[in-house]
Specification:
- By secondary structure, the protein is α+β, with helices and mostly antiparallel strands.
- 33% of the residues lie in helices and 36% in strands.
- It has a single domain, classed as Alpha-Beta Plaits (2-Layer Sandwich).
- The protein is globular, with a radius of gyration of 14 Å.
- This is Small ribosomal subunit protein eS24.
């Protein structure tokens, strides 16, 4: 999967960068987690620091446009992001399960 960054906007108050990106894929629309991992690899970040908010694929096209937030650290993502977005991106779930056990 090929990921191209369309725009980046710094947000120093929330310790993150807002990114609009476009990905080209061969098969069906890629999963949120595979896009997150590809974007993290491209930006040389840990995948826990990347939160993919939206993916939009036009019918019949092999291009997906999306929006993601890239945090300075995973702790910043846990502090700022809403619980449902953390759940969708599988961030922080393992530690919470371990604490409950």
């Amino acid at each position: 999967m090929d990921v191209d960054i369309i725009s980046e906007e710094e947000n120093p108050m929330l310790h993150r960068t807002d990114i609009r990106f476009e990905t080209t894929h061969e098969e069906a629309t890629p999963s949120r987690l595979s896009v997150r991992d590809s974007l993290a690899a491209k930006l040389d970040k840990d995948s826990e620091e990347v939160v993919v908010h939206e993916l939009d694929t036009k019918f019949g096209m092999r291009k997906t446009v999306g929006y993601a937030k890239v945090y300075d650290s995973a702790a910043d993502a846990l502090d700022v992001e809403q619980d449902h977005m953390l759940e969708r991106n599988k961030i922080g779930g393992d530690e919470a399960d371990a604490e409950e056990a």
